[in-house]
Amino acid sequence: TAAVALARRGARVRVLEQAPGLGEVGAGIQISQNGMVVLRALGVVDAVPEGAVRSEGVELHDGPSGRLVTRLRPPAAGPTWYFHRADLLALLVRAAEASGVTVKTGAQAVSVAASGGAAVVRLSGGGAEETACLIGADGVRGVTRAHVAGAGEPVFSGQVAWRAVVPWDGKGASCAVLGMAPGRHVVTYPLRGGRAMNLVAVEERDDWRAESWRQAGEAAELRGRFAGFEGGAGEVL
Question: How far apart are CA 36 and CA 80, in angstroms?
Fold first, then answer.
């Protein structure tokens, strides 16, 4: 998104991406009205975004019983939209290419340094890139963050999130459903016109230390840990 915005203002932009390719990433993501204003202004999405689902609000349920607690209407400023992350990435890549942005994949930064008013990025495979302006978006363990803020270790929050995308039949309301229980909650919302359902199940626990967006989990264990949920969350589980 930053690359598209800069390129539309006349900058020459090159993206260094450490992944070997721009492929399937993650699960669902909710973009609220302030984000949609930016994406539309940049020409990334139309009035009705391709492949996204328009939210009709949020339902809060008691997890163990499935009982409806309350409904939250869409914000007056405008609706939230539910995207599959891979679909949003495809739209951003298309807009970037149309704006003249170049993307170099398999380019993992191992160090960043300032040299004579420029930023120098050294890559894992050898070689370096030099630029007058560098924007780092390489995460909490990224070399750009360490260069600016110094080295540091993240602190475990005690929250573990399970994520999944489940094939769906398109039935049901176009809203996010939150099932609540002590120390845990489950959020579901539709993707891709209701053909898929996004699931995020969060629990408080202190026995997990694996740190990754791609740490694989077992579906049976997920169901077991949230077995007490009824209603929409239970159906998706």
Answer: 8
Pick the closest to residue 228 from 68, 70, 65 (CA basis): 65
**91 by DSSP, 3-state: which?**
helix
Tell me the torsion sign for CA atoms 149, 154, 160, 163. Answer: positive
Q: What is the pTM of this model?
A: 0.89
pLDDT digits (tens, 9 = 90+) for 202-231: 999 888 767 776 678 889 999 999 999 998
User: 109 near 138, Cβ under 8 Å?
Assistant: yes
Contact, 30 vs 85, CB < 8 A? no
CA-nearest of 84, 126, 74, 101 to 9 is 101
The two structure tokens encoding residue 67: 């009982």
DSSP letter at 41? H
Q: Residue range 159-174: average pLDDT?
A: 88
Distance CA 93, CA 86 (A): 10
Q: How does DSSP assign 127-163, residue by residue?
A: -EEEES-------TT-HHHHHHH--------SEEEEE
pLDDT band (50, 70, 90) for residue 47: confident
* The pLDDT of residue 141: 83
Which pair of tokens denotes residue 186? 């489950």
Q: Please name the residue that has the structure tokens 């459903």.
A: 177
Nearest 5°: phi and psi at 81? Answer: -120, 140
Task: Give the residues across from 186 on adjacent strands.
Answer: 179, 201
